[in-house]
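Contributing new records

If you add data, match the layout below exactly. Sequence lines come first and carry their own label; structure lines follow with theirs. Keep one chain per record. Anything else will be rejected by the validation script.
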Amino acid sequence: MSVRSSPTRVTFADGGPAATPITHSDRFVLIDRELRIRGYYHGGDAADVARLAQDAHFLSGGEAVIPFTALPALNATLNGASAILLAAGYLAIRRRRVRTHRACMAAAFGTSIVFLISYLTYHLQAGTTRFPGHGWLRPVYFTLLGTHTVLAACIPPLASVTLGFALRGRFTKHARLARWTLPAWFYVSVTGVVIYLVLYHLYAPA
């Protein structure tokens, strides 16, 4: 396992005879023992440096784990799966298919638990990922992020109580609370995928 830097050649602004080309490393490449590239990292980004350290630790120890840099994609996948299950569960109960509804909602709840574990694991180690965009997209992004974050904090207790009502057979209260829980939960799941796409694909590191 090795870490290599990707150099960028820079010259002095005046461009005169005394200007000497220098090499400035701002990008690192993590390579495993089989000489396969396992990830790219920016040296000026604290989150990338943390991911580099974590991934290098796992590779050097030979531990069979999901690469640390794969966790954001995993989180987005779990969010997407949760959104699909929620939509399927809603359609099922609208058609009076109670068993299908129960299965979909239980699966969505379990998927969200796995997501929460993966999300906390990643962000406790890597911290937050900064949004590099400018202009009109910046307030749009932070509005989306703000509503996502506030509602995401509400979903665990809301979903737990809603599920608890159903398990205890208190279906009137379950249905009443679910009218608020389901759309909020669905919004959080969908916007989680959108935020991932913006941060890791629309503004992917060059």
